[in-house]
Amino acid sequence: MSNRRLGTWFALGVLILAFAATAAMAESHVRIVRLSDVQGAVEIDRNTGQGFEKATVNMPLVEGMKLFAKAEARAEVEFEDGSTVRITPNTKIEFTALSLQDSGAKVSTLTLTQGLAYFDYSAKQKDNVFTVLFKDEKVHPEEAVRFRVNLEEATAVVAVFNGELKIDGLSGPVEVSKNKSASFDLTDGNKSTIARNIEDEPFDSWDKEQAKYQKEYASKGSYRDYPYGYGVSDLNYYGNYYNVAGYGWMWQPYFAGMGWDPFMDGSWVFYPGFGYTWVSAYPWGWMPYRYGAWNFVPGYGWMWAPGGFGGGWTNVVRVTNPPTRFKPPTPPVRGTATVAVGRPATSTFVPNRLVVRSDSAGLGVPRGAVSNMSKVSRQVETTGTATVHPAPARTPAMTAPGGSFGGSHASTGGNHPSTGGGHMNTGGGRMSTGGSPGRTSAPSRPH
Question: Is position 137 within any domain?
Answer without folding.
Answer: yes
